[in-house]
């Protein structure tokens, strides 16, 4: 396989992947070094193909994505239940943020797309390195949820409601977080 064929294969792998793909995984799949993958990614980006790096690997930005922000509340022990409901219905958790009355919006990117990502996230929190961001606002927090279509986001919203996780917006909250957006 020559370099051009390999780069086309990288694009194909990233398009088909449900989760970020690490450079090491790409290198193993294509039987090259990680450094070759890094160079290939740079060449692909030079062709104006939008590939970005996350802490879990490479993601290609070319898929249709709809997003919606949900305000939720639940216990620390229900984080995995919340994330699994979202993932199992075909969505992904882009971020978590809180609206603090003094500090404003405090946000962290998550990029949780699989049950494996959920387990890794829960393990990091349980390791004691840090605590959940929701705990600075009495459990209330927000997630930007991504999905391929609005129907999936509707199903996720219904399931979060059924689980009792959706929270009512207050008048002091600065934006209409329920607004539907397509990117």
Strand content bin: 15-25%
Terminal residue distance: 35 Å
- Could you say which structural class the secondary elements and strand pairing correspond to? alpha+beta
Global Rg? 18 Å
Counted by DSSP, the helix tally is 6
Can you summarize the main beta sheet?
5 strands, antiparallel
* Helical percentage: 25-40%
Low-confidence segments, given as residue ranges, are 177-183
Order of helices and strands: HHHEEEHEEHEHE
- From the spread of the alpha carbons, the general shape counts as elongated
Strand arrangement, major sheet: 5-4-6-3-7
Number of strands: 7
Mean pLDDT: 87
Helix-strand layout with pairing:
Layout: H1 3-16, H2 23-30, H3 34-46, E1 51-54, E2 57-60, E3 66-72, H4 79-88, E4 92-100, E5 104-112, H5 115-126, E6 141-147, H6 150-162, E7 180-182
Task: Provide a concise account of the structure shown.
This protein has 183 residues and is an alpha+beta fold.
Q: Would you mind describing this structure in some detail?
A:
This protein is of the alpha+beta class and 183 residues long. It is 38% helix and 23% strand. The chain has 6 helices and 7 strands; from the N terminus they run H-H-H-E-E-E-H-E-E-H-E-H-E. It has helices spanning 3-16, 23-30, 34-46, 79-88, 115-126, 150-162; strands spanning 51-54, 57-60, 66-72, 92-100, 104-112, 141-147, 180-182. The two termini are 35 Å apart. The relative contact order is 0.18.
Give descriptors for this structure.
single chain, 23% strand, two-stranded antiparallel ribbon, five-stranded antiparallel β-sheet, 183 residues, alpha+beta, disordered C terminus, elongated
């Amino acid at each position: 396989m020559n370099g051009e064929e390999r780069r086309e294969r990288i694009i194909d792998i990233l398009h088909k992947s449900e989760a970020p793909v690490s450079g090491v995984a790409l290198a193993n799949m294509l039987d090259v070094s990680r450094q070759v993958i890094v160079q290939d990614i740079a060449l692909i980006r030079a062709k104006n193909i939008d590939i970005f790096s996350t802490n879990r690997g490479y993601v290609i930005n070319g898929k249709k994505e709809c997003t919606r922000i949900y305000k939720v509340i639940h216990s620390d022990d229900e984080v995995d239940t919340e994330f699994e409901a979202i993932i199992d219905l075909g969505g992904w958790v882009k971020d978590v943020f809180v609206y603090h009355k003094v500090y404003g919006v405090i946000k962290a990117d998550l990029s949780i797309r699989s049950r494996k990502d959920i387990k890794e996230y829960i393990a990091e929190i349980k390791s004691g390195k840090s605590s959940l961001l929701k705990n600075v606002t009495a459990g209330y927090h927000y997630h930007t949820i991504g999905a391929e279509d609005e129907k999936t986001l509707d199903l996720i919203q219904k399931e979060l409601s059924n689980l009792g996780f959706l929270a009512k917006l207050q008048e002091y909250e600065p934006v209409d977080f329920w607004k539907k957006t397509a990117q």
